[in-house]
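Observation: inputs received (chain + adenosine-5'-triphosphate).
Thought: call the complex predictor directly.
Action: predict_structure
Action Input:
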Amino acid sequence: MSTSGRVYSILVVDDDPNIRKLIKAHLSKYKSYEIKETANGEACLKQLREYIPDLILLDIQMPGIDGIEALKRIKEEYPKIPVVMMSGVGTIEKAVQSMKLGAYDFVEKPFNKDRITVTVQNALMNSSLQNEIDELRSELKQKYKFKNIIGQSGVMQEVFKSLDKVTDSNVTVLIQGESGTGKEVIARAIHYHSKRANKPFVAVNCSALPESLLESELFGHEKGAFTGATGRRIGKFEQANSGTVFLDEVGLMSPVTQAKVLRVIQEREFERVGGNELIKVDVRLISATNRNLEEAMKKGEFREDLYYRISVFPIKLPPLRERKEDIPSLAAFFLDKYSKEENKEVDSISPDALELLMAYHWPGNVRELENAIERAIVLATNGEITPKDLPPAVKSLGEKKLYESDNTLSSWIEKLEEEALKQALLECEGNISQTAKKLGIGRATIYRKAKKYGLPMVK
Ligand SMILES: Nc1ncnc2c1ncn2[C@@H]1O[C@H](COP(=O)(O)OP(=O)(O)OP(=O)(O)O)[C@@H](O)[C@H]1O
Ligand SMILES: [Mg+2]
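Observation:
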């Protein structure tokens, strides 16, 4: 094989030393192959713990763990190593069976040397192509992984990195952050990139329901469990079986519900309200809250044991004002999204409008920015968002303010004076006498003050 000059290691497994010798002698003629050998299935599996060959040539009939059994175990533990089976007289059927179990091909004894050469070459070529495809695919997956979640800032990049670590595990995740920082978006991203992606993601808002209803919402109820329970109801934990339960606003759960949720996490089982059948579930739990749970715990409003159970992997989402670098790309993302939705061609944000977006402190975080852009698109003219299209709170940042709360009265008066003088001078084209007349003060005063404020005048 002539690709790239690398050396491929091939492990030959056969109980017959003559066969091993024969193959070794033949394949060793190729400089790019390094041959190792071993006498049976057990020894082969043991070897694999020490090194991973690029290809295995595996005899079918061997004492102890035979070729078929060894193949099964190899495919289980090392699915990527290509295996070529070697079959003697009477084992053809097994050779065919081995193909179904994932062998790449088989060669028959007695060997035709050319056939071995070609089969080995093809198997190696095929597997390196496969590896290349896998790598490209995982790169692509990485690239588009969180494609609808914007965050170039260092803090968000850290969040994405930590997501990579948890998506494939079953640990409970607690997402904390102010309202509108994207807690639910992140919860969904974790689910849809996990092994549970094809199973349900069931969200429960713990603050939206009164205590009595929340319990039946989470665990379901039996017919007649309480007045109005006219039939059996399946709760969210049951609906989410094999998938993920998202407990939103988890900080607002009552002590009773907290105790029940703790039990589900610990025992993985519960009863429906009014029922006594134990229901077993396999769910992954992701919780979110904008409440400071550490504080709630100190106040005795949130159970400590539950806190530790739900926060095995905590994620803190920073408020938008602490990651302002994300504002331009978030704004562009929402611009693209809502201009399509509104079917209106608005494709840019003017520099002064962007400046205002950057200056604003966004108490409602990403959600507030999203709403601002959506609204601005409706108002925009000439395909561009300008300051006039922004919400009043944002727009007003750009309006000159004479009075700010930390101004002293004298500095306020000074500003007013400067403003009035500037305007009058402008109207009188810098003529001091005319300006003096207009403002009703002496020429000398105008002169002195214009100098003080650095305003242009004509003597
Ligand atoms: N990083 C982001 N990229 C793109 N969109 C985002 C991002 N973060 C949040 N959003 C959008 O902002 C809005 C609010 O996000 P989400 O509902 O996840 O916030 P939350 O933290 O759960 O808020 P609350 O505490 O009020 O429930 C959603 O429309 C979401 O799509
Ligand atoms: Mg939310």
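Thought: report the result.
Final Answer: The first helix runs from residue 17 to 27. The CA atoms of residues 45 and 73 lie 8 Å apart.
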